[in-house]
Amino acid sequence: MTTARLPLFPLNSVLFPGLVLPLNIFEERYRAMMRDLLKGAESGDSGDSAHSPDQSSSTDFSEDEPRRFVVVAIRDGREVATTAPGMPDSTTMAERGPAAGFGPDPVQAFHRVGCIADAATIREREDGSYEVLATGTTRVKILSVDASGPYLTAEVEELPEEPGDDAGALAEGVLRAFRSYQKRLAGARERSLTTGAELPDEPSVVSYLVAAATVLDIPAKQRLLQAPDTATRLREELKLLRAETAVIRHLPSLPAVELTRTPTSPN
After folding, report:
1. Is the Cβ–Cβ distance between 199 and 206 less than 8 Å?
2. Measured by CB atoms within 10 angstroms of the end CB, which terminus of the chain is less buried, N or C?
3. If you ran DSSP here, which 8-state letter would residue 258 be given?
4. Residue 233: which of 133, 166, 155 has the closest Cα?
5. Residues 87-98, buried b or exposed e (16+ Cβ, 10 A)?
6. CB neighbours (10 Å) of residue 55?
7. For 220-248, what is each residue's pLDDT tens digit?
């Protein structure tokens, strides 16, 4: 299995392939990451991070994505180090370290399956922070985490997306359940709710869209991300959608977030 060493961006959220992720970068460790991604793009180098301890043992998945990093959901830790928002230099050097908030063994603080993000836009602001717009591309398994550089890096291996049995039929059922869920959710919020476009019919795309758009907690979304195949993910989504729709039916005032829209992470 092909492996690669890439910058690691832990978040209190789960990123799925095909989904857009806006980021507001202000911590120094992640600003350093963005600077290196921009340098790599300018030099045409889509290779491993310059801070990787063993570059010879890793290869890239693609030569066409020079601004890639891995987004992983935090299992135990803080997304933002202990500092005032927008003021990363107000903490001690130890607090500003690459593993700040994640304990002495960072890999234990994260879920083991994440998603590669491709940063289509990295815009630096006057204050040195960054506005980033990235898109999830490929699921990966995290093999190890290195904290020796200015930011965390991880050795990862790509997880292929197998269709599984009856994925097509399951996708049709999930789409029907998702539309019912949308209608119930819109009714609970006393407003109309649309996706803004026709829903897809490719089973894997359906599974990722529904996983991202359904109001679920991080553990539930993480289980969907790391499902062994598309059919398994769709089966789980069908159960979740039916359960969530039933809850909304009995609790019409249930609050919810915007479907298919991810809030900007404060980094």
Report:
1. yes
2. N
3. P
4. 166
5. ebeebeeeebbb
6. 13
7. 999 999 999 999 999 999 999 999 888 87
Between CA 61 and CA 52 the distance in angstroms is 16
Per the listing, tokens 């290779």 go with: 47
Put residue 199 in one of left, alpha, beta given phi > 0 → left and psi -120 to 50 → alpha. beta
Q: Rounded CA gap, 248 and 180, in Å?
A: 11
Encoded tokens for 224: 């969907």
d(CA 134, CA 157) in angstroms, rounded, equals: 20
pTM score of the predicted model: 0.78
DSSP label of 198? P
Phi, psi of 174 (to 5 degrees): -65, -40
Distances (CA, A) of 16 to 52, 135, 166, 264: 25, 9, 22, 15
Which one-letter DSSP state was computed for residue 124? E
What is the three-state SS of 89-122? HHCCCCCCCCCCCCCCCHHHHECCEEEEEEEEEE
